[in-house]
């Protein structure tokens, strides 16, 4: 893993992707390539059955045979990581689990709309876990602590000036029929069967 | 002001924020593009405002749009503005946007350097954190160079949050700026033992990532990792380390032996707890271990056994991992995997594509002559069933890989293989047309016996070209037509119905094919034409010959009109040729012989690297100008190039004839002899000059005519039918064979018995391909240079990181330091001694001091870090004159020394060494074999250890091996030996020395007391191996540990210095040296350099200097220069140390 980006397509299924812009010199990938990667990855991942393995050898598009896609599927969401052979496959599966659980903690019972409307926050959370394509932290408590501290800092900076803006956005959200809290991403612990816990 | 702010924020309430944008996009599903372009316009307005909050909001929205695939690089400058906001909230938005859209080509990126540096040193840890995170995504070589030093400082930050990020980002820095690896490595190594698990894990991560690419440079860390492995509870770290060991063990077999037991235990304990993850991890390491130890079959057995459990598990993930691990074992122990063939074949039927792909991978190593056809048949069925081009392509490449591996070793029947290839052309939408084509060409060229069959198949392909071309023109399957056309043309003598094929090639449809294929068509139809012409002429059918010429003339113009230059050129050439032939034909001149002569001779396959391996003949300088370069006129720039190229080619072409004819003949004879005696030799001698040599040795290999009445040549395109037919045929024949000879085994496949009937006794069971097919090997130039260098990819970004990390740092390797950040009131590492910077008279020196201080700042906690460095050398008398000083500086501090000083040091220090050498007991050396150079360094982790790096240089002409270095320990100084060995055991030097080669080994010594200089006697024993045999030799030497080598150059401020002097617990001593003529400055430099002092203050001809020992003794000096003399007053905690130091100094100075 060397670099990543997030993506949510505004369709039924959501594809949250971490993709390598790997260490190769042709690192400059245009937005078009990025979209293509996302589309194809989504295509590959979404057509896979429920009870198959969580690994996919992606081929040329994701940078050759050293890289593979590792994904997990939660209700309507796919979390896809693209990693090279230096990462342990089960480790990454566990990392995705940690990520989802962290999201769940930070958003308080996360639903997919949380992720769609707060991409920036998702980015910030991911930044505490993965940095420049390498795993930075796997301990959920540590991640949550740092995120909370940063949120606190943000709040203190906003102070008085931030209050009206917050109020307005709260009002805006109030009469929004389209944020139903009940679209939960499902029971996050049951989705991947038979996986031993990975300390 | 406050009012303005509130007003601004009220305005802001009505700006769209990110959520509004997302909502808007979702509400405008129909006209999304229009809505977004509207939003972008709004954003552009917002970016023009002064309010940073508005800008940040705009950038935040842009980041979202970038995610949707919109280009936002136009806002790069605004992003930088937001990055430089003072509030963390905005800064974070800015850095996020930057990490998403900046890349190496972003030109404004260099504007960020100072901003990032500022953020890195921010008192707020999250500012620093966010800057590091952002930087990790867009670091460029320039940024890496400029910021490497700042990041390195952060590696010792007090907050673990910063430390772990700084450690992790170093990997990115190394990649972009490989020069930083060596200076940063010691600190990285320290971080492996950081108290914070996060930092530790980051360091493990980085080192594993580095070691994955260049494992041999990290061998020295093995003990440390071993310790970590046994002590760590963090699974992440554990897995990383295990992976690292996987890379290390092949390089160091002893490591494998050590690891096998703990890991085997690990597997057992994990299996008891059903902790499959653990099993996976340990199995994967056992695998890599085993590659280092081919004989450890027990552990391999265990692995395979455990893997089988994994593969049979119902969990698909484990199944996948099991197969993945299996493929690693396969590389080293194919036998043990082969017994699980059933399991793997079973996996081919798995519903999961990933698992099938893995299983496919394994098949590659499992085929044998016996089962190749069976496996390929299975694969072909899968090809038919397969959905999705990826998997199908994968199957296709696998089939070809499996069949062609090791020079077609497993193929017993090439007709079968050709039909497989032909069948594969039916694959729609494959990207691998060229692969199939290459195989067809390769087989047809190299397997002579198959040509007739191949040609018939290819003719069929050409006939059905419309199917192939229309089906998959885009997907490159039409590449096979390239091969088909070439084969039909080149081997046209085997063609039965050449007329028909020629007509097929002349169809108008052909012009829709890609240019390069048409070109081959055009070229090969002439070959075909030539052979038809000959046929007809020999048969006396002049009419028919003219008809065919007429056909060519009619059809060729369609190629002359081609848009492709190559096709056009060839076609018009050939058209003219044929018109000329027509004229001759009308005059009834027999032309066929001459036309055929155009294509006489055979083309031999040339190995891909052959050209590269042609040795440069003696006396040829490829770099020399052949013609003087013309004067600098621009227009002629290209001319010399072409001349040069041509000349070069000519050289390589003419090289062979240059070889002495006699020598050639001799070689040919020898080769023939060898071939004759080797039944497995599968190369015939197709080159023209050999063809008529009727040597039975070469020609005994019968080129079998294949009986084409056998329905192998199945007409028509429905290939699956054909395949079934082939299979039936095969079975039928097997039956026949069985009837004939009961002992004949299954492996003798269809078609083969024809040959056997005619050529061989049927008693042979396993028939080597050489008996019935001759596979021509690719040609290599004679006396080709054996070299493997060409396998390396020069563009590999990781190659730059292949750096020897054990070598101490050189002066030139310092990280660039920014100068303007000098802080004047920093404390020295020793906080009990407040120090004040002195005004340095040498600007250069000042810089360096600052650098030190910056580093020290980060190091407050690790104040016990000591460095001792001593440079000294000692030689045997035999090598005295060849002295080669090797300088090493491992720790940054030692870099204070200036290069200029270093040079002067050279000349100066050597005389005392010769004195030392004089005192050595010089053993008479039979060969002037080995030169040693050494240097002593303090060990970072330990204040009572020094590391001695010894460079061994073999000055003799013999090969030196089994070197062992032993030292007679004193009470005070002992060599650190591996556990369990006695004090009399030497330490083996881990390498051998061919003549003229030097290499370096390190030895660690422990010291009790450092107040006295030490001398240790030692012996180097080694075996000298040369033509006459090998002898055991010894070489005695002495290691000199001077007191100065225990000192570390430590900067000190003048008031701290004053306090130190006042404290009164220092002993005093002084010396005076007369007859000093050098300048005072030079003199100080000398003391700094040789004795590791730093200047605290200097007034006129009087200076105070300071240094510390590795055990924490302060040493203060007052140096005064008189008319012709120098007096030095010293103060130190330890009087013995002081007097010894002063003595050494006296010696140095008296040489001035």
Describe the structure.
The complex is a heterodimer of chains A (199) and B (1152). In chain A, strand 5 and strand 6 form a beta hairpin. In chain A, the strands form 2 sheets. In chain A, strands 1-4-3-2 form a 4-stranded mixed beta sheet, with helices on both faces. Chain A is an alpha+beta fold and 199 residues long. The radius of gyration of chain A is 18 Å and the shape is globular. Among the domains of chain A are: 59 residues, 2-Layer Sandwich (Beta-Lactamase); 70 residues, 2-Layer Sandwich (Beta-Lactamase). In chain A, helix 2 packs across helix 5 and helix 4 packs antiparallel against helix 5. Chain A has 5 helices and 6 strands. The longest helix of chain B is centred in the middle third of the chain and has 25 residues. About 19% of the residues of chain B have low confidence. Chain B contains 46 helices and 15 strands. The radius of gyration of chain B is 39 Å and the shape is globular. Chain B is α+β, with helices and mostly antiparallel strands. Among the domains of chain B are: 101 residues, no CATH class; 104 residues, Leucine-rich Repeat Variant, CATH 1.25.10; 71 residues, no CATH class; 160 residues; 112 residues, Immunoglobulins (Immunoglobulin-like, Sandwich), CATH 2.60.40; 104 residues, TATA-Binding Protein, CATH 3.30.310. The two termini of chain B are 71 Å apart. In chain B, the strands form 3 sheets. In chain B, strands 10, 11, 12, 13, 14 and 15 form a 6-stranded antiparallel beta sheet that branches. Chain B has a 5-stranded antiparallel beta sheet with strand order 1-2-3-7-5. Chain B has a 4-stranded antiparallel beta sheet with strand order 6-4-8-9, with no helix packed on it. Classes of the chains: A alpha+beta (199), B alpha+beta (1152). Chain A: It is found in: Cytoplasmic vesicle membrane; Golgi apparatus. Chain A: It is a peripheral membrane protein. Chain A: Keywords: Cytoplasmic vesicle, Golgi apparatus, Membrane, Protein transport, Transport. Chain A: It comes from Ficedula albicollis. Chain A: Belongs to the adaptor complexes small subunit family.
């Amino acid at each position: 893993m060397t670099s990543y980006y997030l993506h949510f397509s505004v369709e039924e299924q959501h594809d949250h992707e971490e993709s390598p812009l790997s260490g190769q010199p042709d690192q400059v990938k245009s937005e078009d390539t990025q979209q293509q990667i996302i589309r194809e990855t989504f295509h590959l991942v979404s057509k896979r059955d429920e009870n198959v393995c969580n690994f996919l050898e992606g081929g040329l598009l994701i940078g050759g045979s050293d890289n593979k896609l590792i994904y997990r599927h939660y209700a309507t969401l796919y979390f896809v990581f693209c990693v090279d052979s230096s990462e342990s496959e089960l480790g990454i599966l566990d990392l995705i689990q940690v990520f989802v659980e962290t999201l769940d903690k930070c958003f308080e019972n996360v639903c997919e709309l949380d992720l769609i409307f707060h991409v920036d926050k998702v980015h910030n959370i991911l930044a505490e876990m993965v940095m420049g394509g390498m795993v930075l932290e796997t301990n959920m408590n540590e991640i949550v602590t740092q995120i909370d501290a940063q949120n606190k800092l943000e709040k203190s900076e906003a102070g008085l000036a931030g209050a009206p803006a917050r109020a307005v956005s709260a009002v805006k959200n109030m009469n929004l029929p389209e944020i139903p809290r009940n679209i939960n991403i499902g029971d996050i612990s049951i989705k991947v069967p038979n996986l031993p816990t990975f300390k | 002001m406050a009012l303005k702010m509130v007003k601004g924020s009220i305005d802001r309430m009505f700006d769209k924020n990110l959520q509004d944008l997302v909502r808007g996009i979702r509400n405008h599903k129909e006209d999304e593009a229009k809505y977004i372009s509207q939003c972008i316009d709004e954003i552009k307005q917002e970016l023009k405002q002064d309010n940073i909050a508005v800008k940040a909001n705009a950038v935040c929205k842009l980041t979202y749009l970038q995610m949707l695939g919109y280009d936002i690089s136009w806002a790069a400058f605004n992003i930088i503005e937001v990055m430089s906001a003072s509030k963390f909230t905005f800064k974070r938005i800015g850095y996020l946007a930057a990490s998403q859209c900046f890349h190496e080509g972003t030109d404004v990126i260099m504007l960020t350097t100072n901003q990032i540096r500022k953020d890195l040193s921010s008192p707020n840890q999250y500012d620093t954190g966010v800057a590091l995170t952002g930087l990790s995504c867009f670091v460029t070589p320039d940024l890496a160079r400029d910021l490497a030093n700042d990041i390195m400082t952060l590696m010792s930050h007090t907050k673990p949050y910063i430390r772990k990020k700084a450690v992790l980002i170093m990997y990115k820095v190394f990649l972009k700026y490989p020069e930083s690896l060596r200076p940063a490595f010691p600190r990285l190594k320290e971080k492996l033992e950081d108290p914070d698990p996060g930092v530790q894990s980051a360091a493990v991560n980085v080192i594993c990532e580095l070691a994955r690419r260049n494992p041999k440079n990290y061998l020295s860390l093995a003990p440390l990792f071993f310790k970590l492995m046994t002590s760590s509870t963090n699974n992440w770290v554990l897995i990383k380390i295990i992976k690292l060991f996987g890379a290390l063990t092949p390089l160091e077999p002893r490591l494998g032996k050590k690891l096998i037991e703990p890991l085997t235990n690990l597997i057992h304990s994990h299996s008891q707890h059903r902790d499959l993850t653990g099993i996976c991890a340990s199995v994967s390491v056992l695998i890599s271990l085993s590659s280092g130890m081919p004989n450890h079959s027990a552990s391999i057995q265990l692995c395979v056994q455990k893997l089988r459990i994994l593969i049979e598990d119902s969990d698909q993930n484990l199944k996948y991992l099991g197969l993945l691990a299996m493929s690693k074992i396969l590389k080293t122990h194919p036998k043990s995997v082969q017994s699980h063939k059933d399991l793997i074949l079973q996996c081919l039927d798995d519903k999961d594509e990933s698992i099938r792909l893995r299983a496919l991978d394994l098949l590659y190593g499992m085929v044998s002559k016996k089962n190749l056809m069976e496996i390929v048949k299975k694969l072909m069925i899968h090809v038919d069933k397969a959905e999705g081009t990826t998997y199908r392509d994968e199957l296709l490449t696998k089939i070809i890989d499996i069949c062609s591996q090791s020079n077609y070793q497993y193929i017993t029947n090439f007709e079968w293989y050709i039909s497989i290839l032909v069948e594969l052309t039916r694959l729609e939408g494959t990207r691998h047309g060229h692969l199939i084509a290459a195989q067809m060409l390769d087989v047809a060229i190299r397997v002579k016996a198959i040509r007739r069959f191949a040609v018939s198949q290819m003719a069929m392909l050409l006939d059905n070209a419309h199917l192939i071309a229309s089906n998959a023109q885009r997907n490159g399957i039409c590449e096979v037509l390239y091969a088909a056309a070439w084969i039909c043309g080149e081997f046209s003598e085997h063609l039965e119905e050449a007329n028909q094929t020629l007509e097929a090639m002349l169809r108008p449809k052909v012009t829709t094919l890609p240019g390069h294929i048409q070109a081959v068509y055009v070229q090969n139809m002439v070959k075909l034409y030539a052979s038809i012409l000959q046929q007809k002429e020999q048969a006396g059918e002049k009419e028919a010959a003219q008809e065919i010429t007429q056909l060519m003339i009619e059809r060729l113009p369609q190629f002359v009109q081609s848009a492709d230059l190559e096709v056009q050129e060839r076609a018009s050439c050939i058209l003219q040729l044929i018109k000329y032939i027509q004229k001759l034909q009308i005059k009834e001149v027999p032309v066929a012989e001459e036309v055929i002569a155009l294509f006489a001779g055979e083309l031999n396959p040339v190995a891909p690297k052959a050209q590269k391996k042609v040795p440069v003949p003696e006396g040829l300088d490829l770099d020399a100008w052949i013609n003087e370069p013309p004067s600098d006129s621009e227009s002629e720039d290209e001319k010399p190039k072409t001349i040069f190229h041509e000349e070069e080619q000519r050289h390589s072409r003419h090289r062979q004839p240059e070889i002495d004819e006699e020598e050639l003949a001799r070689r040919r004879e020898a080769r023939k002899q060898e071939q004759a005696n080797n039944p497995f030799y599968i190369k015939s001698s197709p080159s023209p000059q050999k063809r008529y040599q009727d040597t039975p040795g070469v020609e005994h290999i019968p080129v079998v005519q294949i009986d084409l009445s056998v329905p192998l040549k199945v007409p028509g395109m429905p290939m699956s039918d054909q395949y079934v037919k082939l299979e039936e045929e095969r079975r039928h024949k097997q039956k026949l064979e069985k009837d004939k000879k009961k002992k004949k085994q299954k492996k003798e496949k269809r078609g083969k018995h024809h040959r056997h009937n005619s050529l061989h006794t049927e008693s042979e069971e396993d028939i080597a391909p050489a008996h019935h097919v001759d596979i021509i090997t690719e040609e290599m130039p004679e006396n080709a240079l054996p070299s493997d260098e060409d396998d390396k990819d020069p563009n590999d970004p990781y190659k730059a990181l292949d750096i020897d990390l054990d070598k101490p740092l050189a002066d030139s390797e310092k990280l660039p330091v920014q100068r303007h950040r000098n802080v004047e009131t920093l404390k020295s590492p020793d906080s009990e001694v407040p120090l004040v910077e002195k005004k340095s008279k040498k600007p250069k020196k000042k810089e360096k001091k600052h650098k030190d201080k910056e580093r020290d700042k980060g190091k407050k906690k690790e104040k016990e870090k000591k460095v001792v460095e001593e440079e000294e050398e000692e030689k045997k008398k035999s090598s005295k004159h060849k002295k080669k000083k090797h300088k090493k500086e491992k720790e940054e501090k030692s870099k204070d020394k200036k290069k200029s000083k270093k040079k002067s040091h050279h000349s100066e220090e050597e005389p005392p060494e010769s004195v030392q050498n004089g005192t050595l007991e010089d053993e008479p050396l039979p060969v002037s074999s080995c030169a040693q150079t050494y240097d002593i360094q303090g060990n970072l982790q330990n204040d009572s250890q020094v590391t001695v790096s010894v460079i061994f240089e073999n000055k003799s002409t013999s090969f030196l091996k089994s070197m062992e270095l032993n030292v007679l320990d004193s009470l005070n100084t002992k060599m650190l030996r591996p556990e369990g060995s006695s004090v009399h055991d030497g330490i083996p030097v881990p390498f051998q020395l061919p003549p003229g080669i030097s290499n370096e080994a390190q030895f660690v010594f422990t010291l009790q007391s450092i107040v006295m200089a030490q001398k240790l006697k030692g012996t180097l024993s080694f075996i000298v191996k040369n033509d006459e045999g090998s002898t055991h030799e010894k070489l005695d030497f002495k290691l000199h540990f001077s007191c100065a080598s225990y000192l570390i150059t430590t900067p000190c401020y003048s008031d701290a210095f004053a306090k130190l002097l006042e404290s009164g617990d220092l002993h005093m001593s002084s010396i005076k040296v007369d007859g000093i003529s050098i300048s005072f400055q030079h003199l100080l430099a000398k003391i700094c350099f040789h004795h590791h002092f730093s200047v605290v203050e200097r007034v006129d001809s009087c200076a105070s200097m300071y240094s510390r020992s590795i055990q924490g003794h302060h040493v203060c000096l007052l140096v005064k220069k008189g008319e012709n003399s120098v007096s030095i007053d010293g103060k130190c905690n330890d009087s013995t140390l002081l007097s010894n130091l002063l003595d050494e100094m006296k010696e140095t100075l008296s040489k001035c």
